[in-house]
Amino acid sequence: MRILLAEDDPQLGRATQIGLEQGGYAVDWVRSGDSALTAARLHQYGCVLLDLGLPDRDGMSVLAALRASAYEGAILIVTARDQIPDRIAGLDGGADDFIIKPFDLDELTARIRSAARRASGRSRTTLSHGDIVIDVADRHVRKGGIDVPLTLREYSILLTLIENRGRILSRLQLEESLYGWGEEVESNAIQVHIHHLRKKLGRTLIRTVHAIGYCIDKPLDQQGGAAA
Predict the structure, then answer these.
(1) Is 215 helix (H, G, I), strand (E, B) or coil?
(2) DSSP string for residues in 58-106
(3) Environment class of residue 94 by beta-carbon count within 10 Å: exposed (0-12), middle (13-18) or buried (19+)?
(4) For 162-205, what is each residue's pLDDT tens digit?
(5) Which residues fall under the DNA-binding region feature (predicted)?
């Protein structure tokens, strides 16, 4: 998942970015509300972590602008404001969660996963596709009941494709979900990850659509009402 972090404190922002990246997330860090809105227009984020005390505009106005735009992902307010009226205003304003600083990184990542599930319409912590089961909370993948070790990038691609079953995702769309600003991306990186996923999970799992991208097809019983 690619995350947008809007935090003006340099130490907290850098520590949060590093911690989330070590957990396998791609993180773009901005320090102002205007920069956050610009980034959200230009890139696809699964989650926005939004400080309320940004230097140029209040985080509540950023929240309102994000929800008034086409952004439909999760938004978590991360702030030192701990008063009940602030929490109520943030949640009523469209935030999916409200986290008080200082916070535990493990709890933050758990809340990110939970909010992302709700934003994508999922309530369960597992995803299944045939005999493949993904435990989203623990990032474990099993095929036929057997654990399949994946790298963080392989896991992210698999999760993205399964969450978008039936849709063809281009190489650029997959790169957008994997890499943050400043990360060098080899031209064949996605192709290599797809190759490794096929070796580990089956050659027919991921379909290549020539000159367009990659797709995991929906199960037969979900394809236009086909018989199970």
Answers:
(1) strand
(2) -HHHHHHHHHHTT--SEEEEEES---HHHHHHHHHTT-SEEEESS--HH
(3) middle
(4) 988 899 999 988 888 887 776 777 778 899 999 999 999 999 99
(5) 124-218
Residue-wise pLDDT for 64-80, tens only, equals 999 998 788 899 999 99
Rounded to two decimals, what is the model's pTM? 0.73
Q: DSSP states of 142-162 as a string?
A: EETTEE----HHHHHHHHHHH
CB 37 within 8 A of CB 62: yes
The backbone region for 3, taken as left when phi is positive above 0, alpha when psi lies in -120 to 50, beta otherwise, is: beta
CATH number corresponding to 2-119: 3.40.50.2300
Query: Scanning the structure block, which residue is given the tokens 């505009």?
Result: 57
- One-letter amino acid for residue 180 of the chain: G
Q: How far is CA 115 from the centre of its chain?
A: 10
β-pairing, 213-215 vs 132-135, is unpaired
CATH topology of domain 126-222: Arc Repressor Mutant, subunit A (1.10.10)
Domain residue extents for the chain: 2-119, 126-222
